[in-house]
């Protein structure tokens, strides 16, 4: 492996401190800001005085679970995006762009319509199955023809698959009003319905996915140099791609199951970190988790402020921010491979 890979980026410590400070500010903003502004004494009561039962303290306690869930979902999507970009060697890879979110959505809506599911545990397993099958299908389609799985072919395959699956979702929902009522709020993408039981269900998937990503990062660095170079360094490229892709699907599928199909977090967080720190995945992956948590949490806060006295779902906010950035990246990068 290139000797430069063993070096810590010279600005890593500074970037880490800045990101942690931003993360703290996002957490504070998530607890304080919304349709009801929380004052500092109410914030202290809600965090440290469980015996106080004021309205402000109750608002803070409700927002704690939402904030934790937002941080976890953002971290999961950030790591998932980094893994998918590394596995496909595609700088524009993201669960939403490759159709993985839509595949998870289709399986969830099928479960609601035909299996009468309604719990987080049931959502998760169906979403994981849908995400995995869609990821394999998109990669298979994108690998056909000359040149194998090029960035443009993967993006086109993901877009086409996502459009087709979205049509299926609509076809299943339209004649079933009860399915539409249950599904339409989930489909937008939101962290507003967070519960501690849902967070507990999500944590094992988050831990397994992130640990797998961190452990495979050195080998993925070798893979970025090409399959032949990686194989020459003892990397089993097929096994590595499978394990890393499964970790990415696990993170994306579990998040989609509980929060809905929130897009562009993986793309934005990984691109920002890669631009600042370089391509070394040993640093990109953990920092993508932090930046993903920051982006999703601040997007949730913005949605609350923009939609006040109601709220604008976070999936709408991230799409509004992410879509033009994706277009800009596609134009500037000319869809080059990593």
UniProtKB/TrEMBL annotation:
Q: Where are the transmembrane segments?
A: 12-33, 68-86, 98-117, 124-142, 154-174, 195-220, 240-269, 281-306, 312-331
Q: Keywords on this record?
A: Cell membrane, Membrane, Transmembrane, Transmembrane helix, Transport
- The answer, when asked if Transcription regulation is one of the entry's keywords, is no
Q: Which domain of life is it from?
A: Bacteria
Where is it located? Cell membrane
Q: So what family is this one in?
A: Belongs to the binding-protein-dependent transport system permease family. FecCD subfamily.
In Swiss-Prot or TrEMBL terms, this protein is called Iron ABC transporter
């Amino acid at each position: 492996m290139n000797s430069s890979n063993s070096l810590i980026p010279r600005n890593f410590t500074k970037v880490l401190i800045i990101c942690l400070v931003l993360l703290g500010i996002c957490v504070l903003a998530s607890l304080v800001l919304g349709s009801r502004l929380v004052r500092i004494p109410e914030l202290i009561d809600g965090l440290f005085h469980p015996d106080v039962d004021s309205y402000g303290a109750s608002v803070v306690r409700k927002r704690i679970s939402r904030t934790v869930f937002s941080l976890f979902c953002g971290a999961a999507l950030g790591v998932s995006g980094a893994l998918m970009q590394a596995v496909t060697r595609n700088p524009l890879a993201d669960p939403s762009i490759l159709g993985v979110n839509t595949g998870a959505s289709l399986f969830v809506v099928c479960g609601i319509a035909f299996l009468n599911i309604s719990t987080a545990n049931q959502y998760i397993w169906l979403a994981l199955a849908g995400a995995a099958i869609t990821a394999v299908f998109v990669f298979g389609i994108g690998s056909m023809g000359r040149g194998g799985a090029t960035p443009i072919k993967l993006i086109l395959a993901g877009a086409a698959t996502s459009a087709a699956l979205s049509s299926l979702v609509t076809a299943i929902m339209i004649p079933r009003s009860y399915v539409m009522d249950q599904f339409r709020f989930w489909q937008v993408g939101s962290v507003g319905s967070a519960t501690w039981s849902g967070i507990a269900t999500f944590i094992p998937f988050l831990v397994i996915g992130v640990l797998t990503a961190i452990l495979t990062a050195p080998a993925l660095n070798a893979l970025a140099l090409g399959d032949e170079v990686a194989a020459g360094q003892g990397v089993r490229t097929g096994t590595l791609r499978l394990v890393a892709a499964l970790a990415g699907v696990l993170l994306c599928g579990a998040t989609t199951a509980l929060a809905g199909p929130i897009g562009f977090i993986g793309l934005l967080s990984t691109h920002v970190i890669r631009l600042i720190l370089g391509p070394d995945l040993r640093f990109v992956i953990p920092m993508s988790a932090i930046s993903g948590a920051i982006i999703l949490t601040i997007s949730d806060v913005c949605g609350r402020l923009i939609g006040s006295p109601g709220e604008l779902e976070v999936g709408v906010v991230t799409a509004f921010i992410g879509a033009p950035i994706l277009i800009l990246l596609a134009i500037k990068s000319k869809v080059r491979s990593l």
